[in-house]
Structure formats: structure tokens, C-alpha cells
Amino acid sequence: MKTMLFLVALLCSAALHAQTVQTFTLEELPTKPVNELLNRAMISGEQGTIGYFTYKKGAVVPTHQHPNEQYSLITKGSVKVTIGEREYIVKAGQGIIIPPNLPHSFVALEDDTIDIDFFAPPRADWIDGTDNYYKDN
Asked: Fewer CB within a 10 Å sphere, N or C end of the chain?
């Protein structure tokens, strides 16, 4: 029994060490210009995705939904987030957590707004390029 427990512990330890550690600098991540007012950079790991958005005033992330829980932290500027009939003003130093599958949109209220988002699980639509909710904006 002790041998069996030791082997299980050894296998679990090996699995943990097999994961890859990633380091990054937000400003150096590859950036995708979404439109003339909005840029997005991203990086994903096994369990989540970080999105780094830079907005000009009036930039819009149109109403969309996804199966990911979303944590948004505004580090500079401010945004208006619309979820259903409710509007939230989120300013620098504030954040909002959006549950999965809840339609929502963002509008930048100031130039040079920075929004750092975390999504769990990873944003498969960003990874495979099928996020098409920006196409009409």
C-alpha cells in the first residue's frame, strides 16, 4: 500500500512539473488591432486567458457572450459596461466580474483606457480566431 501511495505521489509530482511556466510583459504581447479605436493583446495558459485591451474614447466591444467567466480590471481611464438593461461605470482601479454566458458590451469613456481581462476557461474563440462579434463595428 505504501508503495502504491508513493507511486501515485510520484506521478502527480511529475505531472505538476511537466507544466510550462510562462513569463510575459503586457506591453510586449503581440497586439491585434480590432479596429481604429481598439487594440487587443492576449496570452493563454492551460486554464485561462489574459486579454490586454487599449481603447480610445468611444471604442466599442459590441454585445457578445461566451462560456468563460470574465474578470475585468480597468487600470487607466474608464468604461461603461452594459449587461442586460443595467449599466456599470468602471473606473481606473475598479473591476467587474461577468458570469459565463451573460450578454455584455463595453464602451470606452476616455482615451488611452487600459482594460486587463482574465477569462476561465481559456478563450478558445480568440485562440482559433473565430471571435467574429467585432466584424460589424
From this structure: N
List, for residues 25-49, the tens digit of each pLDDT value: 999 999 999 999 999 999 999 999 9
The domain spanning residue 49 has which CATH number? 2.60.120.10
State which residues form the domain around 87. Answer: 29-127
Residue spans of beta strands (DSSP E) within the chain = 31-35, 38-44, 49-55, 60-64, 69-76, 78-83, 86-91, 94-98, 104-108, 113-120
Q: CA separation (Å) from 97 to 2, 14, 15, 120? A: 45, 34, 31, 11
Q: How many residues does the chain have?
A: 137
